[in-house]
Structures are given as structure tokens and as C-alpha cells.
Amino acid sequence: MKKNEIIAIYGENPLEMTKKLMAVAEVEKLIGGKNKHIGIKPNLVLASPASGGATTHPEIAAGIIEYLRDNGFSDIVILEGSWVGDRTQEAFRVCGYTELAKKYGVRLIDLQKDTFKQYDCKGVPIGICDEAMRVEFMFNLPVLKGHCQTLVTGALKNGKGLIPNSEKRRFHSMGLHKPIAHLNTRLRNDFIIVDGICGDLDFEEGGNPVVMNRMFAALDPVLCDSYICELMGYSPKEVPYITMAAELGVGSLYGSDSVASELNRPEGIVKSIRSGRKVERLVKHTDARSACSACYGSLIHALARLENMGELENIKIPICIGQGFREKTGEIGVGNCTCGFRRSLKGCPPSAKDMLDFIIGETGKRQ
Ligand code: SF4
């Protein structure tokens, strides 16, 4: 497989699809020495099964392990650090990785508990977990899904699980895009498999899975993510971390030099997929400044519930959220960052349920 290639496969059996993609790409040749320390990085942003559209199907990790074992590789670990507000151990258990690790005898590494060091990521110092930097060949397994702050998530953003929680918070205070792009100047992205089985095309944390029954492989995270944009009807320019990463030399944007092939395509399945852009309607009711993912995701979910209840239009002024409101005053906000506001909901982050109750209470429209 070459750096400018994307290889897609369609089907309903992620384990067999993974092995097929790896065989076609001749991954054993890409890895090289049989003694390499191999890491598998799924997206377990929170404790929710893959069927909900937020996390990577464990069958993909199983397919990688089986392929590697069949080809004589044995030093394999699975590593992840869930988002701030969820415990990785719980995500491992709920998402089926604890069971998988037991079955195959591989080690699970909770990066929320790991030590870390600072690295110069092309001019931006970023703390990266030690276990992530020990890996000599990294499988990156993002979910093909939407995101309420960055529109899409893919390979580049999945690297955020390899940094400590303190850095995740700092990323949001830095505006997400720039640090994500710079982080990827140091991370390994040796083989990427995108889980497009049933991602949520609007919400990073899932809840509205869209069955797409596809996966694809890539070697270049910039190519991968700009291809996801292409599939979802966005321009890479709408997702600044992708173009920033390209400018930093992390990889190349999907374009006329790229080669996208398909190993199969069952009749009736169309290539492109589209977000309902529901989030864009909800975002209009927020004023977000450097909000953490879990916090903002909960607010968007609370607003979605309000929309379903027909009460969204009762919100007359935007709900403020994010680290940019620390030590500021204002009218209404959620999260400890807005504690100086006249009406503020405590929590770091507060739950979506608490946000819903708070907003309903404050707008005084409970029916
Ligand atoms: S309250 Fe502030 S620091 Fe805490 S999760 Fe929300 S945005 Fe982040």
C-alpha cells in the first residue's frame, strides 16, 4: 500500500473486513521486524458500546490481533485515554475491550493513569503519554463520525487520546485545531483503519448511529481525514486542523494525486454519506469559548432534547460555556467556568441531564 492510497471495504463483519484490508495492504511488510512493540489505538472517547456510533468496534482490534498473530507478531498492546469526564477503565469494560484483552491475552493500557513528557511539536510544546511514545508501530482506529466543535473527527483528532487529561483541557483553551495539528507532527500513524460501520454523523459521543457498513485503510492521517470530509460533504478548509496538519508536513490532502479504491461495493450502497447538520441548528443557541468536548457535547445533547420537546425556541439568549468565560460575568452559563455568571450550573463537566433540568428551570417553561 502506498501513502497516497485509500482502500475501502464494505460489509457487516468488521473482523473479517479488517483482516482483508490488512492482507491487501500487506501490513506485515509495513511493520518490518517481528519484535516491534505494536500499539492499537481505538476511539473509546466514552463508555458507550460501538453500536451507539461513538466508539470503535472491538472486532476491528480483534481482526488486527488475529492478523498479527498469524504473521508472527506478539508484542501487542491496546491503549487509550477517554475524554475528561469519563474513566478509560469503564470505557474498556463497556465497549468490550476488557473481554477482548482477556480472550487474546493482550495488555490494556489506561493512558489516563500514565506518566508523560513534554515534546516540541514543531514549535508547540505538548505533553504526550510515555506508553504511547514507546510504541514502534501504531494502528490508529478512528470512528467515521461528526463532531459538534470540529464538524468531523478522524485519524488526526483520535491522537488526542494519547495525551494526559491536563493537556486535553489545555487543547480546548488553545482552540483545538492548532494543537491537534501540531500533536500529529510527533505521533505515529503507521496504519489507519477507519470504522465506518455505524458512526454518528452529528455527535462525537454518539446516540444517533447511521449504518454505513464500510471501513477504509490509509497510511496518511491528513489524506484520511480530508477523504472523510469528501465523503461527508465538507471541504477540508471547514476543518482547520486538517489543512494546518498538511501545512506542517504531516501528510497530503485528498486530491488528484490520491488513489481511492474499493475492494467491493454491495449493490444499493452509495459512496457518499451526509450529516443532517442538526448540530448547526443547536449551536446557534450557545456561546462557546474554549469548551471541553465532554462539556460541550452534553450541552448539545441537552439542546437536542429541548428541540425534541419543542422548547428550543424558549431560549432567548445563548447559553455560555467554556474556559474562555473563567473569571468573567454574564447572564447564563453551564459548567464551573461560568461560576461568575448571574445564573450558572455547577459541574466540571455537568451531565447532560443536569444541563437540561437547569435550562428548563431557568427558562421557566417546563410543561
Ligand atoms: S466546566 Fe470548564 S473546564 Fe470544566 S469541563 Fe466544562 S469547559 Fe471544561
Topology:
Elements: E1 5-10, H1 14-25, H2 27-31, E2 38-42, H3 58-70, E3 76-80, H4 88-94, H5 97-104, E4 107-110, E5 116-121, E6 124-129, H6 130-134, E7 137-141, E8 145-147, E9 151-153, H7 155-158, H8 165-173, H9 177-183, E10 191-196, E11 214-218, H10 221-232, H11 240-247, E12 259-262, H12 278-283, E13 286-288, H13 293-308, E14 319-321, E15 332-334, E16 343-345, H14 352-363
Parallel strand pairs: 1-12, 2-3, 2-7, 3-4, 7-10, 13-14, 14-15, 15-16
Antiparallel strand pairs: 1-11, 5-6, 8-9, 10-11
Bound molecules: iron/sulfur cluster (SF4).
* CATH topology assignment of the largest domain: Rossmann fold
Please provide the count of β strands: 16
What is the count of helical runs?
Answer: 14
Overall domain count = 2
Please report the first level of CATH classification, the CATH class of the largest domain. Answer: Alpha Beta
Structural class: alpha/beta
Could you give a short account of the major beta sheet? Answer: 8 strands, mixed
